[in-house]
């Protein structure tokens, strides 16, 4: 065994410390560090706000959407976004005119643009689920490249591009700041529930609420719609197959968990695709989060049957359920403006836009 000899100033005095003893002190220090980290984790867990929201305490309203028939060239809409005074539709399956832009108030066509290709202003694989904006530009996702786009003289111009490189597909990506993003975790169900991508590097955070499943099934059953904004310091997860919503801060700390109490019972299934959905699509402005809530439908049914009317829930960013609404018409594309106007469309009837003013009750 290797020995370490320490020689002190006192004459004729040698102290031999066995390597095993040194190792003991190192291990003792490591155990102390683990204890300290465990205590820190315990206090962190205690800071999570856990609540229950009883849906029966917020009665369902029945409201009427205002219908607007429009003359436009929208043919294959897959997302609807509000960009200040404009409505921006994405059509990733179209051969050209990937973007159609309308005036938000008059609903008149302003212009269309964007085509498929490999140049800076063209798109290889436009992601319909990603949108963010600044005062003068908006962000779209082309495969794993975020493109910043401006609108000038009726044309779309890409002014910047940011690669977002992770070892998997980008799911539920939201922009939380300059060069800061949060996405769903790996599709194999390993590592954390989310990926934090910041300044070109990624890390994992969060634990899945349902831990009993393994690998891909864990990822599928814990799937959710995630909403975040660059002017917020948090994200919200609305889970597809659980009556649950949760909020993380933008550093990856779970800060709030709300279990949804619903009198409607969903039968337990062995796979996500056989299970009936809870939450579906979401949209948000700086005031509210709008979530579609399902009772009795599977995910495949929601995508195939576009005539299903789903409950609309209006949440605050603090996690307060403000309203529950059943509208008189179905829609699958929607967005909310900063002045709290809902814009909606059924993708099968792109010549009709619906509106509703949340300021009026």
Secondary structure layout plus pairing:
Elements (H helix, E strand, L loop, with lengths): L2 E5 L6 E5 H28 L2 E6 L5 E4 L2 E4 L9 E5 L2 E5 L5 E8 L5 E7 L10 E8 L4 E5 L2 E8 L2 E9 L10 E4 L2 E5 L9 E5 L2 E5 L9 H7 L2 E5 L5 E6 L4 E6 L4 E8 L17 E6 L3 E6 L5 H6 L6 E6 L4 E7 L5 E4 L4 E5 L6 E6 L4
Parallel strand pairs: 3-21, 4-25
Antiparallel strand pairs: 1-2, 5-28, 6-7, 7-8, 8-9, 10-11, 11-12, 12-13, 14-15, 15-16, 16-17, 18-19, 19-20, 20-21, 22-23, 23-24, 24-25, 26-27, 27-28
Explain how this protein is built:
- The structure is a single chain.
- This protein is mainly beta and 361 residues long.
- 11% of the residues lie in helices and 45% in strands.
- The protein is built from three helices and 28 strands.
- It has helices at 19-46, 215-221, 299-304, and strands spanning 3-7, 14-18, 49-54, 60-63, 66-69, 79-83, 86-90, 96-103, 109-115, 126-133, 138-142, 145-152, 155-163, 174-177, 180-184, 194-198, 201-205, 224-228, 234-239, 244-249, 254-261, 279-284, 288-293, 311-316, 321-327, 333-336, 341-345, 352-357.
- Strands 3-21-20-19-18 form a five-stranded mixed beta sheet, with no helix packed on it. Strands 4-25-24-23-22 form a five-stranded mixed beta sheet, with no helix packed on it.
- The chain is globular and about 50 Å long.
- The protein starts with a strand and ends with a strand.
- The model is unreliable at 1-44 (pLDDT under 50).
């Amino acid at each position: 065994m290797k020995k370490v000899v320490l020689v002190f100033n006192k004459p004729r005095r040698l102290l031999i410390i066995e390597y095993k003893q040194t190792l003991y002190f190192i291990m003792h220090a490591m155990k102390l560090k683990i204890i300290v980290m465990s205590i820190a984790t315990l206090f962190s867990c205690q800071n999570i706000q856990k609540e229950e929201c009883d849906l029966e305490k917020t009665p369902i309203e029945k409201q009427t959407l205002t219908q607007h028939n429009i003359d436009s060239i929208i043919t294959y809409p897959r997302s609807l976004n509000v960009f200040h005074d404009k409505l921006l539709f994405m059509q990733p399956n179209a051969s050209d005119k990937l973007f159609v832009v309308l005036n938000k108030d008059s609903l008149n066509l302003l212009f269309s643009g964007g085509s498929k290709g490999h140049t800076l202003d063209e798109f290889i694989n436009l992601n319909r689920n990603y949108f963010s904006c600044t005062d003068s530009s908006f962000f779209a996702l082309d495969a794993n490249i975020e493109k910043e786009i401006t609108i000038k003289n009726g044309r779309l111009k890409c002014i910047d591009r940011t690669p977002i490189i992770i070892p998997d597909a980008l799911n539920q990506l939201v922009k939380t700041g300059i060069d800061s993003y949060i996405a769903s975790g790996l599709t194999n169900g390993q590592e954390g529930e989310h990926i934090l991508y910041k300044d070109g590097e990624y890390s994992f955070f969060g634990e899945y609420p349902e831990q009993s499943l393994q690998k891909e099934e864990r990822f599928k059953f814990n799937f959710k719609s995630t909403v975040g904004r660059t002017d917020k310091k948090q994200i919200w997860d609305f889970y597809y197959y659980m009556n649950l919503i949760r909020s993380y801060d933008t550093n990856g700390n779970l800060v709030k968990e709300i279990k949804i109490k619903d009198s409607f019972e969903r039968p337990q299934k062995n796979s996500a695709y056989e299970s009936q959905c809870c939450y579906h699509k979401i949209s948000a402005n700086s005031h509210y989060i709008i979530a579609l809530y399902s009772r009795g439908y599977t995910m495949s049914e929601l995508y195939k049957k576009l005539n299903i009317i789903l409950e609309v829930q209006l949440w605050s960013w603090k996690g307060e359920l403000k309203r529950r609404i059943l509208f008189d018409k179905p829609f699958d594309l929607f967005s909310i403006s900063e002045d709290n106007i809902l814009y909606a469309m059924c993708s099968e009837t792109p010549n009709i836009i619906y509106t509703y003013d949340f300021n009026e009750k």
